[in-house]
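WARN no homologs supplied; continuing
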Amino acid sequence: RRGAEHTAGSKGHGSSDSIKVCIRIRPLNTREMLENERIVVRRGPQETLMIMPFSPKEKESTHAFDWVLPGDSTQERVYEELGHRMVEGIADGFHGCALAYG
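OK structure emitted
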């Protein structure tokens, strides 16, 4: 077995944490585009997710994750970034979970 530094999702950030989180930004769907909705999240520097304010009184907030993939990421890119790590980790006896929402 490989050590904790190679757990499913480990990207080599120098951390042996076993839980890694990836956010894939969902692009606007057809209805949202027709209704001129605006994108309220964007990928920031160094794997951060930036949430845009809804009103002038609010401030932009930034949240750090292990990976942040833009909305135009292909399924192939998602697998390259995460899928093979999960498969390898599970094959090595680690637990793995992928949750898709939205």
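The longest helix spans residues 75-91.
OK
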